[in-house]
Give the backbone structure.
Amino acid sequence: MKAPTSPNAKKICRLFLAVTIAFLLGIIALIALGKGARCGPLFVALLASFAIYVRGSETLKGFAFTIWIFTGVAASMFYPFPFQQWGTYKLIRLIEPLMMIIMFGMGTTMSVRDFTQVFLMPRGVIIGLVLQFTIMPLVGFTLATTFGFPPEVAAGVILIGCVPSGLASM
């Protein structure tokens, strides 16, 4: 989709920029008044309007999806219940099937050329493996001890540090 070129589309982009600025000023005002805990709806709206504005900008439109992800995360942080359960169905049951779909999608994007590159330049793969199983678990251990996590949670954080990056990035 091309960036807006018609005068109406440009006006809409400017409108969403103005709306984004208005939401930002509202959040700043709430924080200044000591009511920062009530800025959830404004923050979600700010991110949504900014994502719409960015989508209309030729230079920034590549960031629109990322901003929408941040919008969804912010909405789930301020309003967790709709992201936990719909009616009687607990959404936690979707984690495993969705991870399978994501991993299948990641696997289907690989080609024979990707594997030949590993054999042609193994140095990068070896360095990545060494760093994956040293630095990442050490960072997990440091986080777990710094924040005083219970042993079960600490073990999980350290194990996530050992997981190859594709799954850990979820």
Observations:
- The mean pLDDT is 84.
- The longest helix spans residues 7-32.
- The CA atoms of residues 21 and 46 lie 8 Å apart.
